[in-house]
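pls design
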């Protein structure tokens, strides 16, 4: 029998490796930015077109590469970072496996331009699908420029699995944030489709956070700092009152490398225990420095998971450090038995003698004597001022039942009151017709969650949140589609703070939001002004609704069209709908029921959950048999 095991060709092996290293355009951005940082660059420029599907280009002013290194860097597992297996546990650089450039070159058109400072001219290499198509010397500035075009051009199945451009752009921005936050001393510039997205000058960590997330972030930050033998903790946490329902602004960095750790996140959450509102999450930018030998970062293809040798001690120290910072800066309540400085005597009054207060009493004062101004005592007026009634004026125009019953008979006969017509509401047909008209409009609220209404053959139980969700969804979707949203103007415009990336997302759906009833004013760097709201939305819920909308857009936003309108209507309706536990009046319950059955699909919510349940009288009778 012939042998059946054979070695894979290099281009096939590279494509398989690319499946782990390059999942989407954001993966290319991450690898190229990390290579630029390892090249000791002080200025890095990222250029993206069509969410990275057409072009991802990274330019740095680092040390550059020689001709041999430039050619060799695209080979599999070719690296300058490690030479022995033990070096994996003493890493000080970003990329070390030597598989990123080889994987990228296997599934895209790559152009590399590089030059060292000591060289007179540089080199340009072009690769398509792991095959070098050209290599020639060229005049280029010091540093390296790598252009990745037509990603997944030779793997159409992988390209079809990419999300829409806004979603892929959001992933690229997330990777850009993670690298930029970890290296505030490096200048970063990012452009997308020809327009600048971020221009981050070099500075410290606080300046970098403010430059990315807006000036309003400055007042939200609480510094964290602790240095021990095991770990050094630094960075910032957000004040508890600025906690969000989404987990957006949560960043852990270990040795300037972004990581994800549910264990460390639990430590921070434990430090915020009792300070956050229910359903909100803390925000933090925490940098941990540990000995490279005490961690293993080679356990995940994306290198975002790290294994600690002594994770229990790090957990305890991180929790204690965050809790201490919250108490030190008077964010968390602390016990302080020292006297309050507010009760100290001011310095200007410390040597003054106290003066005894004097009490003056008017011995001629008579409370029963009518007030008379002494200066006007001898002045005579040409008219006499009539004394106005005091308490009697409260009862002017009121008649008791006895006076009403004793109306003049002649006034009744004259027909004065017969000509009065009383306005009445127009009688319309009831949705729940019944032989007992008194029971037709009876509704009950069960556990502040369900609305119960009797019908002909039993009862109807409606989930109030899902019912209102369905009503608002169809109303908003109609307004967006027909572009006839009704707006309520605000006397004082709302000023809502959003980060720069969030404002970019809201700007992309601004037209659709205006059709729902929003009226936007001027938009500053990190402040969104709202002059009008949809009729069904209150001012207190405006910020929460837009934050939820931004979160949904980040997770999955389809391309422009009906699917995008559907997502906007769902997100806004879910935030605006009445929640479980809300007490509804009799009129509100009846109004909700009538609006629900005016919908096209009253029985299911926009998420395909049942809205109402009917219980037949026969089923109730069986319970008592």
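designed seq:
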């Amino acid at each position: 029998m012939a042998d059946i095991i054979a070695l894979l060709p290099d281009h096939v092996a590279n494509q398989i490796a690319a499946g782990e290293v390059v999942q989407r355009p954001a993966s290319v951005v991450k690898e190229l930015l990390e290579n630029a940082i390892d090249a000791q660059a002080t200025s890095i420029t990222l250029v993206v077109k069509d969410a990275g599907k057409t072009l991802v280009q990274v330019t740095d002013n680092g040390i550059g590469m020689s001709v041999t290194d430039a050619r060799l860097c695209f080979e599999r597992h070719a690296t300058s970072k490690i030479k022995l297996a033990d070096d994996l546990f003493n890493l000080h650089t970003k990329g070390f496996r030597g598989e990123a450039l080889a994987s990228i070159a296997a599934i895209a058109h790559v152009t590399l331009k590089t030059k060292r400072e000591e060289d007179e001219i540089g080199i340009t290499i072009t690769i398509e699908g792991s095959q070098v198509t050209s290599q020639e010397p060229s005049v280029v500035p010091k540093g390296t420029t790598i252009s990745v075009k037509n990603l997944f051009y030779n793997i159409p199945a992988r390209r079809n699995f990419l999300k829409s451009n806004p979603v892929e752009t959001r992933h690229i921005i997330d990777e850009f944030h993670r690298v930029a936050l970890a290296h505030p001393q490096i200048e970063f510039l990012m452009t997308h489709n020809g327009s600048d997205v971020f221009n981050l000058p070099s500075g410290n960590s606080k300046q970098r956070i403010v430059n990315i997330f807006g000036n309003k972030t400055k007042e939200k930050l609480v510094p964290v700092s602790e240095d021990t033998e095991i770990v050094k903790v630094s960075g910032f946490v957000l004040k508890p009152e600025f906690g969000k329902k989404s987990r957006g602004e949560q960043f852990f960095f270990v040795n300037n490398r972004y990581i994800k750790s549910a264990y460390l996140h639990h430590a921070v959450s434990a430090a915020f225990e009792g300070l956050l509102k229910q359903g909100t999450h803390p925000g933090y930018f925490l940098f941990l420095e540990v000995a490279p030998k005490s961690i293993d970062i080679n356990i995940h293809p994306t290198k975002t998971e790290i294994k600690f040798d002594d994770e229990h001690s790090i957990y305890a120290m991180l929790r204690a450090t965050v809790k201490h910072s919250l108490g030190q800066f008077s964010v968390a309540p602390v016990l302080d038995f020292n006297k309050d400085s507010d009760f100290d005597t001011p310095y200007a009054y410390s040597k003054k003698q106290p003066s005894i207060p004097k009490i003056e009493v008017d011995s001629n004062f008579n409370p029963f004597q009518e007030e008379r101004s002494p200066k006007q005592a001898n002045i005579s007026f040409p008219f006499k001022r009539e004394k106005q009634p005091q308490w009697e004026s409260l009862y002017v125009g009121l008649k008791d039942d006895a006076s009403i019953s004793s109306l003049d008979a002649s006034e009744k006969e004259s027909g004065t009151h017969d000509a009065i017509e009383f306005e009445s509401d127009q009688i319309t047909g009831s949705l729940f017709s019944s032989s007992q008209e008194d029971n037709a409009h009876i509704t009950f609220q069960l556990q502040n969650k369900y609305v119960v209404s009797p019908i002909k053959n039993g009862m109807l139980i409606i989930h109030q949140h899902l019912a209102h969700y369905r009503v608002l969804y169809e109303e908003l979707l109609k307004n967006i589609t027909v572009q006839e949203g009704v707006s309520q103007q605000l006397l004082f415009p709302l000023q809502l703070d959003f980060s720069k990336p969030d404002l970019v997302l809201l700007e992309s759906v601004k037209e659709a939001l205006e059709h729902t009833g929003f009226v936007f004013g001027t938009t500053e760097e990190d402040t969104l002004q709202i002059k009008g709201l949809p009729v069904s939305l209150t001012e207190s819920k405006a910020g929460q609704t837009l934050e939820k909308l931004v979160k949904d857009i980040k997770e999955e936003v389809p391309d422009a069209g009906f699917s995008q309108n559907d997502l906007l209507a769902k997100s806004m309706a879910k935030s605006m709908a009445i929640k479980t536990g809300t007490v509804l009046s009799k009129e509100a319950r009846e109004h909700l029921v009538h609006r629900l059955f005016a919908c096209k699909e009253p029985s299911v919510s926009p998420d395909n959950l049942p809205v109402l349940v009917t219980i037949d009288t026969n089923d109730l009778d069986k319970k008592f048999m």
